[in-house]
Amino acid sequence: MTRRYWNINLEEMMEAGVHFGQGTRKWNPKMAPYISSKRKGIHITNLTRTARFLSETCDLVFDAASRGKQFLIVGTKNKEADSVA
User: Fold this and answer.
1) 26-72 confidence digits (pLDDT tens)
2) I need a labelling partner for 82 at 20 to 30 A (CA). Which of 16, 59, 74, 75 fits?
């Protein structure tokens, strides 16, 4: 798999609220390596790690799409419907 440069900006991720995770009461202990802190009952996700995994995922999707693979994108919130449509 070829590594590519994806323009992933940590400041834009912060503005988009990517760092907000699940509430501290509803968390899965397997997520502990990805959580950097807790604030006001919400886990704060480690954005540096998230950006690295997002870049790797973009590489995988790009390679699969270039081979003609198809994708099903599912959103769980109404707000996401316009982005997916």
Assistant:
1) 888 888 888 888 888 888 888 889 889 989 999 999 999 999 999 98
2) 59
Cα separation, 75 vs 84, in Å, equals 8
Q: Categorize the per-residue pLDDT at 6 as very low, low, confident or very high, splitting at 50, 70 and 90.
A: confident
The CATH class, in words, for 10-83 is alpha beta
pTM: 0.69
Whether 6 and 55 have beta carbons less than 8 Å apart is answered as yes
Q: Which helix (H) or strand (E) holds 44?
A: strand 42-45
Per-domain residue ranges for the chain?
Answer: 10-83
